[in-house]
Write a structure and sequence with these properties.
Elements (H helix, E strand, L loop, with lengths): L1 H23 L1 H24 L7 H16 L6 H19 L7 H19 L1 H12 L3 H23 L14 H20 L9 H28 L15 H25 L2
Length: 275
């Protein structure tokens, strides 16, 4: 009961705020998601610092902002320009590491760069997905968010009530195989319903609904497992404590880290080949 009381204010404020920002799109969505991405990469670097590593946090922040802005201009920048940005960032990380008296320069450079890949390239791709929706009048971002929430709810509820065999117990002791499968079913039912009611504003085939369901059902839950792996390595229960009863922002956004880029890639594929 105490945990519910702690979580309730975040839920009451958080869900309407997310929906309002999502409906605005454009610069409002870009700024809001960039702030969330910065909080996520900050928490990720704190996991590394818990193991006495020293990532270049300032460059990490700059890298995340740059990648988020690149996604905001997803239809303006070429692949060559994005690759040039990534290579320049890598050179800068290595360059500045040479000025530090560090015991683990290879690890520090790797963690700094991985933080930008993990949050800036993977998670921040949701900015690009929202831009796609703005240009095409679709609601794929809303579809992804709702189906991820339903997937998590199905996985938790059915896993807790009926799940017996653990999925990967050493990383996530509470996740069961039955709960994992239930999450995929929940994602499918959600996306099928949204498509049937034309809420997505694209007439998806049953095959496309199934593909989206697998992306969200499988990789949404695996994003959570991956973050659990990092937290266990750092010997921490949560990535942060800023959200009462919910841990940190990274704890709340982990299901979107793998799903966002994959949904974006599949949407772009559909646009070029099917839609």
């Amino acid at each position: 009961m105490n945990m519910i009381k702690k979580r309730l204010p975040v839920i009451i404020i958080g869900i309407p705020s997310v929906l309002m920002i999502l409906s605005q799109g454009g610069m409002v969505f870009f700024i809001a998601l960039t702030i969330v991405a910065l909080l996520c990469v900050h928490e990720f670097y704190n996991l590394a610092k818990a193991k006495n590593y020293e990532p270049n946090i300032t460059l990490g922040y700059l890298g995340v902002v740059a990648m988020s802005y690149a996604y905001y201009n997803i239809f303006s920048y070429s692949l060559f320009e994005c690759l040039s940005l990534a290579l320049t960032f890598l050179v800068l990380v290595i360059f500045f590491e040479t000025f530090k008296d560090s015991k683990n320069p290879i690890v520090n450079v790797s963690i700094t760069f991985f933080g930008v890949l993990y949050i800036g390239i993977l998670f921040a791709s949701i900015v690009g997905l929202r831009q796609f929706d703005s240009f095409n009048g679709s609601n794929f971002t809303l579809m992804m968010l709702v189906s991820v929430w339903i997937c998590d709810s199905f996985a938790y509820t059915f896993g807790k009530l009926f799940g017996k065999k653990k999925l990967i117990e050493r990383l996530s002791p509470k996740k069961t195989i039955l709960g994992f499968c239930a999450g995929i079913v929940g994602a499918f039912l959600t996306i099928y319903s949204l498509n049937y009611t034309s809420a997505i504003d694209y007439n998806l085939s049953l095959l496309s609904v199934a593909v989206f369901s697998l992306i969200i059902g499988v990789f949404g839950q695996w994003g959570d497992i991956a973050e659990s792996m990092f937290k266990r390595d750092a010997n921490l229960k949560d990535s942060g404590s800023i959200l009462l009863g919910h841990g940190g922002f990274l704890d709340r956004c982990d299901s979107l880290i793998f799903t966002s880029p994959l949904v974006l890639l599949y949407v772009l594929y559909l646009q070029n080949h099917i839609l």
